[in-house]
Predict the 3D structure of the following.
Amino acid sequence: MLFGNRILWHASLLAAGVSLASGLLEKPKVDGIPQYVLDYAPVCYLHHQELYFPSDLQAHLDNTTPQDDNFKKIDGAPSPLSLTNLNKLNDFAEGGKKVYLTSNDDITKDPAWLKGAAPDCDGKASDIIAVAVIVVDKGDDNIDAFFQYFYSYNWGGVVLKAFQAGNHVGDWEQNMIRFEKGVPKYVWFSQHGNGQAFAYDVLEKDGQRFVNYIANGSHANYAVSGSHDHTIPELNLGKGILMDYTDGPKEGGKLWDPLQNAYFYKFSNSTGKPTFTSSEPGKYPTEWLDFLGKWGDKQYPKSDKRQQEILGGITAKFVGGPTGPIDKQLDRKEVCPDNGNPCILRHILSP
């Protein structure tokens, strides 16, 4: 079946509420991971205009150099960087917290490695590893399952129809599913601010798997397609200064099955020390998950000719890169991160 026809067929079935995952996407089995985590995993749609796709973790390391808080190359850093030695950077710059994986290229030239890999018609983004599936045992047969998505570049969008804002190297986004005795109860979608959390039962489904719409450029995750105003977190007024845009198969959105580009892990903080283990002992490297630094450039100063401050310095054209999975509150108590904002558990599907 031709790709275009397949997408149209997929869109018509999804709109009709027909189960698709069992026929379109494989359901893998992974040693050490409960099967229900895989059965209820997200099915993603990237925007049809997306230019910066899921990115290979090792390729990102190959194209960056560790720098400190003063934009200086870190002497003595492991070279070449790999997924098995990235944690060694925690020996530098305040325990790794002020280490920046800085692009070797001028990012204004849009080097090819920033663009990642577009998914094929079967929802697989080439043979890259761009996802960490992390299972956290909460006790009493309850678990949280995190699906951490990596992109080498975040395009922040346009403010006031005139200025680019919020671009940065490296981008970690995520969904989290909270299971109670093997049953999915809530799903959290990472976005600007505190994200959004919905009861699993109200979400759009592809078979048993919920649908996750990924915003063009910013890669924020949403439960519905369309326009999303995030000027005021938790309040979508439809139109605003800061907008995200998502779409699905009817609009040409690109199907992505993150399970096909993933490593699988377990996480525990029971001893007070965050610990990652491969779901199958020795199969997946864990050292990179311990890295405490930033997965991109430090925010360029105002003096840098590439930089442009916006709205009186409230934001800038280029901002700093993010921390990795270890800094995403994997042992959280609530469905949402604990950042002082209320965790609203929505039981009605809405933008």
